[in-house]
Design a protein that fits this description.
22% of the residues lie in helices and 32% in strands. The protein has two domains: 2-55, no CATH class; 70-232, no CATH class. The chain is α+β, with helices and mostly antiparallel strands. The chain contains five helices and 13 strands.
Length: 235
């Protein structure tokens, strides 16, 4: 229970209740209680979950850890089921576009990280019937470093499978983010909510966050501090 207790204490520092009774102080008090009152801290987990459920829209997808499955910012993270086989397929209807063309092809603003500068290449993918694409990807270092951006209103867009204690909560611009610190299997989730196994590939370390109803994945050979620095520079 030690890891759970630590995570709950970390979460207590971020609790906000803008439209609900102010229970933040009580949750913090219980999570920092002496050991003899530790059972109360565990009981407070249910209360903390309730508080998370009433956060504003930009944070309503903070976390849903049920049965070992974590959902955050349009991405699911689940236990690994093995490495992908064969060469991964591209995302549906994937194509290269100039940055300004890509901006016209999506319904959300495409932000460029100031720490990386203009991308070497931009890719858009999975258009709907009106031609609006679901994903825009900025590629750097010959494609070894990438920023995937997609509509934060989407239910799911990517599915990660990871093993080991390599997933942790961090912050980007003062808000929730998730760091996956080791290679992991990444698959695309189509508009019907089905995992496209043919797109599965071994992805590098990844930072996941959401800002202004846009979800982001920053993937590449990066340390956690460097990834957060890049994410904080998105303009």
């Amino acid at each position: 229970m030690g890891d759970l207790e630590k995570e709950l204490r970390d979460l207590s520092a971020w609790l906000e209740t803008p439209d609900a009774p102010d229970v933040t102080a009580r949750v913090r008090a219980r999570l920092t209680a002496p050991r003899r009152h530790r059972w109360r801290a565990y009981a407070a987990a249910a209360l903390a979950a309730l508080v998370v459920a009433v956060l504003p829209p930009t944070r309503t997808a903070v976390a849903d850890a049920v049965g070992g499955l974590l959902r955050f910012a349009g991405v699911t993270i689940a236990p690994s089921s093995g490495l992908p086989a064969g060469t991964p397929s591209p995302l549906p209807s994937q194509r290269t576009a100039a940055l300004d063309e890509a901006q016209r092809a999506v319904r959300f603003p495409i932000r460029v990280p100031a720490k990386l500068g203009p991308p070497e290449r931009v890719v858009v993918a999975d258009p709907d019937a009106s031609g609006a694409h679901r994903v825009a990807t900025l590629l750097y270092r010959g494609g070894a470093l990438r920023v995937d951006a997609f509509d934060g209103h989407l239910n799911l867009a990517f599915h990660k499978e990871t093993s080991g204690p390599d997933t942790e909560w961090v912050q980007v611009n003062g808000d929730f983010a998730i760091w996956v610190g080791s290679p992991h299997v990444l698959s695309y989730v189509d508009r019907a909510g089905q995992i496209r196994r043919e797109t599965a590939r071994l992805a590098a370390s990844t930072l996941i966050w959401q800002a202004d109803d846009v979800s982001y994945r920053l993937e590449g050979d990066l340390t956690k501090p460097k990834a957060i620095e890049i994410a904080n520079s998105m303009k």
